[in-house]
Design goal:
Radius of gyration: 19 Å
Shape: globular
CATH topology of the largest domain: Rossmann fold
Largest sheet: 5 strands, parallel
Distance between the termini: 49 Å
Order of helices and strands: EHEEHEHEHHEEHEHEHEHH
Number of helices: 10
CATH superfamily of the largest domain: Nitrogenase molybdenum iron protein domain
Strand content: 15-25%
CATH architecture of the largest domain: 3-Layer(aba) Sandwich
Amino acid sequence: MRIVSLVPSWTEYLIDLGLSNQLKGRTKFCVRVGDNKNDIAVIGGTKNFHVDKVESLQPDLIIASKEENDQSLVEACSNFSDVLLTDVKSIHGAVAACQEIARATKKEKTGQEWCDRIQQTWGEPRTQRARASYVVWNSPLMLAGQDTFIHAVMEWWGIDNAAKDLQGKRYPEISESKWREMESGLALLPSEPFPFQPKHLAMFREMGKKPLLVDGEAFSWYGSRMVHVAPYLEHLASELQA
């Protein structure tokens, strides 16, 4: 089977399923690709990948995400390959998608082992330990709202999402004035999709916030990455509570 992944977290999961030799294409953001990095063709970004490059790889299966990939480009790929379109918005949904991909790639046993590990390391949802807003973009200022995987991760580990009641899109844009008025607790500044760095901390302090740089992969990547980041999230939630 020849596979192309358009989703960074699913690329890592495919590698962990033991499919590195069958993975023929990836996006430039698929950075966790094991030892076969140079053998897996780069077909562009997640939003603007090159359909002709994907087609040239003659894939049997393309793994895509409703949130991360451009709909029209994914639909174009369906003209020459089977497409498995995922739409992960919850922890249970992430596990279900892991199982679906494992079935589609005939790796049910290994996939179930990873699902078991996810469920063991994540356990049951924690009680609320802290309150925070998760900033997904800067200029314009955008937060992670409800009905997102990021929100689900925060709530699971006991971090109350201060932006969950904001009206509008799943990632609502918020003005600086409204942001100043908002009882938002901590401001979590992730490493992706916007690469927040120490130089950005002062700006949020000036807005009366308590900013904290966090690992973006821990909150937004599903698949096998969920196993790897569980200790980090447990430690972070405990620190926030303290």
